[in-house]
Write a structure and sequence with these properties.
The protein is α/β, with parallel strands linked by helices. The protein has one domain. The protein is 25% helix and 24% strand. It has a four-stranded mixed beta sheet with strand order 1-2-4-3. The longest helix is centred in the N-terminal third of the chain and has 9 residues. The radius of gyration is 11 Å and the shape is globular.
Length: 59
């Protein structure tokens, strides 16, 4: 699951809801204006948009 934000350093509360429903789903929040990337104990990640998108493979 990917959630996109312009400027938010806090994990989306939606991830906790979906984590209870489908704990095997990878949760990534992609943020344009972010100083530092984070990974949380529940596996959720917050990544800088241009870095994450540059590694995205569509094939």
């Amino acid at each position: 699951m990917v959630e996109v934000k312009w400027k938010d350093e806090n994990m989306s509360p939606n991830f906790e809801v979906f984590n209870h429903i489908s704990p095997q789903v990878k949760m990534i929040q992609v943020t344009k204006e972010l100083k530092r990337e984070k990974t949380f104990p529940n596996g959720a990640e917050i990544r800088i948009a241009h870095n994450w998108l540059s590694t995205l493979s569509l094939s």
